[in-house]
Amino acid sequence: MGMLDKFKEQLNFKEAYSNFKNEQKAISKGLAGRFDYLGGFNKLIAGEIIVWRGETDYSLILQHNTGNKKYEIKITGIEWDEKGQRSAGKAAAGAIIGGVLTGGLGAGAGAAIGGKKTDNSLAVIKYRDGDFEGEIYFRTDNKQYQHLTRLL
Fold first, then answer.
1. What pLDDT is recorded for position 9?
2. 63/28: higher pLDDT
3. Beta-ladder partners of 72
4. Among 4, 23, 38, 83, whose CB has the most other CB atoms within 10 angstroms?
5. How far apart are CA 26 and CA 31, in angstroms?
6. Rounded distance, CA 140 to CA 33, Å?
7. How far apart are the C-alpha atoms of 47 and 131, rounded to whole Å?
8. What's the distance, CA 100 to chain centroid?
9. What confidence score (pLDDT) does residue 95 get?
10. Is 26:52 a contact under the CB 8 Å cutoff?
11. Burial 101-125, CB ≥16 within 10 A → b, else e
């Protein structure tokens, strides 16, 4: 590797580090957030993305973690689809263990602890990109959904 290649590599690292610091500042100030993107926008792949407050009202900027390319979209609506699921198998195991350890009194508590609810809620964002209208899906809990709505 020549000296010019090393210099280019250092510049790329400095740019990436600077971008990371800017993202962290924006997130800490509530101007951006990291969300679990599931799909719906064909220019991004599923995974964790950064969502920034848009340049105009009711717009968001989407950026995948692995690239610098950002996409601004106009938001036409947002909904939260609350979904939760309890594991019956874990509840039964918790009840058995709680019952054995405490002589039956802990069966109810063991079932409650073992059958903890997992949050599979979705934020559904309706958007317009030029003439195209679509929906984007994020896995969110209530706190993340509130953060997403504040970005608008």
1. 53
2. 63
3. 61
4. 23
5. 5
6. 12
7. 26
8. 39
9. 52
10. yes
11. eeeeebbeebbeebbeeeeebbbbb
How do residues 35-81 score in pLDDT, each as one tens digit?
999 999 999 999 999 999 998 999 999 998 777 789 999 999 999 88
Residue 17 pLDDT class (50, 70, 90 cuts): very low
| Full DSSP string of the chain | --HHHHHHHHHHHHHHHHHHHHHHHHHHTTSEEEEEEEE--TTS-SEEEEEEE-SSTTEEEEEETT---EEEEEEEEEEEE--EEE-HHHHHHHHHHHHHHHTTTTHHHHHHHHTPEEE--EEEEEEEETTEEEEEEEE--HHHHHHHHHT-
pLDDT score at 1: 55
Q: Which domains does the chain have, with CATH numbers?
A: 3-82+121-150 (2.30.29), 84-119 (no CATH)
- The residues facing 74 across adjacent strands are 59, 128
Which amino acid is residue 92, in one-letter code? A
Where do we find the tokens 């924006």? 26
CB proximity list for 110: less than 8 A, separation 6 or greater: 94, 95, 96, 97, 98, 99, 101
Name the amino acid, one letter, at 18. Answer: S
